[in-house]
UniProtKB/TrEMBL annotation:
This is Response regulator. It comes from Neptunitalea chrysea. The modification 4-aspartylphosphate is found at D63. GO terms for biological process: phosphorelay signal transduction system. Gene3D superfamilies: 3.40.50.2300. Residues 7-131 form the Response regulatory domain. Keywords: Phosphoprotein. Pfam families: Response_reg. InterPro entries: CheY-like_superfamily, Sig_transdc_resp-reg_receiver, TCS_response_regulator. SUPFAM superfamilies: CheY-like (SSF52172). SMART domains: REC (SM00448).
Length: 136
């Protein structure tokens, strides 16, 4: 991690949601560096070619409903391609379907379910959780 900034990957097909996230980080000065991808396959490629260890990537936020690859397909591919990955994944969705919340139990990397629209408190919780898990 660079300084105290948390490096996160956000996989979201809505450019408006990505813009709002970037603005929230800037306005509220959340210590996060955001790497955005509108396609799951591009995010997987970036993780494979760029991320060397878990300290380089603090968290992955992934939307459930995307056209090319769903959030579930993304997480399944992430875990298959990186069986030892320890980066926490958070599902980000407007879904209120209890089945979606139950389904997160199927994936060891998924650490939480965040409702859209994201709030600054959600981002702060992710950075606080990462800081606590990084300490002795």
């Amino acid at each position: 991690m660079k300084g105290s900034e948390l490096n996160i990957c956000v996989v979201e097909d809505s450019t408006l949601t990505l813009l709002l996230l970037q603005k929230m980080v800037e306005i509220f000065k959340v210590p996060i560096r955001v790497n955005t991808f509108t396609q799951g396959s591009r995010a997987l490629e970036w993780i494979k070619n760029t991320v060397k260890d878990k300290e380089e990537l603090g968290a992955i936020l992934v939307d459930l409903n995307m056209p090319e690859m769903s959030g579930w397909e993304f997480v399944a591919a992430l875990e298959e391609e990186n069986p030892n990955i320890e980066v926490p994944v958070y599902i980000v969705s407007a879904s209120c379907d209890p089945i979606d919340k139950e389904r997160i139990e199927e994936y060891p990397t998924i650490k939480g379910f965040l409702h859209k629209p994201l709030k600054v408190e959600d981002l702060e919780r992710i950075t606080d959780t990462k800081r606590q898990s990084s300490s002795c």
